[in-house]
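Case 327 in the screening queue. Each case pairs one protein sequence with one candidate compound; here the compound is magnesium ion. For every case the pipeline is the same: read the inputs, emit a complex structure as tokens, and attach any notable structural observations.

Predict complex for case 327.
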Amino acid sequence: MSPRQAGPGPLLSVAGLTTVFEPPSGRLTAVDGVDLDVFRGQILAVVGDSGCGKTMRSLSVLGLVPPPGRVVSGRAVFAGRDLLALSEGERRAVRGARASMIFQEPMTSLNPVLPIGEQVAEPVRVHRRASKREALGAAAAMLAKVGLPDPARVLSRYPHELSGGQRQRAMIAMALILSPQLLIADEPTTALDVTVQRQILDLVSGLSRDTGTAVVLVTHNLGVVAQVANAVAVMYAGRLVEDAPVEAFFEGPAHPYGQGLLASLPRLADRGRRLSAIPGMVPSLSRLPSGCHFHPRCPRAFGPCAGEVPPFFPLPDGRRVRCWLYA
Ligand SMILES: Nc1ncnc2c1ncn2[C@@H]1O[C@H](COP(=O)(O)OP(=O)(O)OP(=O)(O)O)[C@@H](O)[C@H]1O
Ligand SMILES: [Mg+2]
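Case 327 output:
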């Protein structure tokens, strides 16, 4: 268990999760032995460069990795049961009612030939056995909460009749309608204007506060992290490299990669100065450096970094860091 939080055990405990793709060009490990706990009422932000495995990690937990990808090892214990050991039918039941996901790409989760209302209402009909009328009423109320104007009319619209941002909000409504215990939100607000973004983030934080929903929020936006998250998990090239309370992360990430991420944020006080970027490029997952994947770009690399994969080292302030500097 992570030292991050005392008290009752985690709602979701992921251990040793490894997901690979094996195209003809060679095997690549998209998620490499990730361990991570998520607690009730927690909003855990997952950050890291594009392609580092944030989406695959989320999809792996829910058994949704698209072929030819597959989870090759690990556990994802949710409310006492390993989701990875369930049958697809059992997993579908959990996904519908107690764990839901907001996908990065709205069109992957909306059915193009069904009206929005039916889709948003479906979980209520299936899992609460509500009548069609009741379920549509609940759907309209939820569409209003995610800020869609004129929800009664949106009910009868088809996905292609909505804008990208409207589709994203319909999908968010569908994911939130049953107040899930676990919500995995993959870049939920990227296509939205700041005011709508604020509204959605408030809705998600309110849900987490009021019903104890645990939220895993995948985002590129460190401003969003600062606004709503209480913990931050940093990924680099398929691995989790730091897991920290949000205050500790913003005071100063422990891992040199996290330090580079934060230093590349523009600040008003630094206007006119060059932003510091992390030197070098994110490595291809099919040709990863040995040892710590970050070592070729790391300004603080030394002896063991190229040779051995660092384990997690716990720090006194509650974080865990995979970096030899803390050995
Ligand atoms: N269909 C696929 N075939 C082969 N490899 C894939 C496939 N989908 C994803 N991958 C690999 O998995 C890695 C992780 O992808 P993932 O979508 O999890 O990244 P991400 O961190 O969510 O990136 P982004 O921030 O751009 O959404 C990618 O680097 C890519 O190499
Ligand atoms: Mg992604």
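Case 327 observations:
- The pocket of adenosine-5'-triphosphate (ligand 1) is lined by residues 21, 23, 28, 30, 50-56, 66, 69, 104, 285 (CB under 6 Å).
- The CA atoms of residues 19 and 71 lie 4 Å apart.
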